[in-house]
Please model this.
Amino acid sequence: MTSSLWQPYINAALPLLKMHSVDSMKHLKIYRIWIEHQIVELIQEDQQIFKGDIVSVFVPVILSPVQENKSKYRELNATLNVLTERMPIPESTVRKLMILLSRQDIESLPDCFDVKGYQTGMDGRSIYIEIGTHNGKRLYSYWEPESAGQDKSLKEVQNIQAILIVLKSELNLNRVYSSFVKSLPSGSQTLMGSLFDILSLGIR
Model:
């Protein structure tokens, strides 16, 4: 699925996540990166104001007893009860991240489907990046960018991998998400798959 086809899914997901579309927000620049079950949002409103958030998302499995054996359960995906946690990113960190990501060409990277030699597939997980600047808004994706099968000689692979390294190291994304999940009621289970895969169940 190309990035343009994901735009309706993003538009429908934003209200569930209590977020706004990039083009409706005040900004000079916005970088919004969808990674697994988290969204990193970095905003430069003007020359002085920088702000950002990490939005962690958990979609609980809806369980119902199976009539013939009440000790077993089955998943019901018809309704999504999306739980979120929004963690502010310090202004100084937002400034630093926007500089570092700009150096990795985050604003101009092509979609992975337009990169000759980039490996894509149907299964697996992608990251999605929304960019808002004075030039307008764009969305692009990279399928399994950290896979060992990707050609590391490609500049685009080097860039997208560097972007992920910067975000994960500077923001401790794994620790943030683990802390969020631990704060949920004991025994909570999430639906399997990427955030977009899960949200698409309730958007289709």
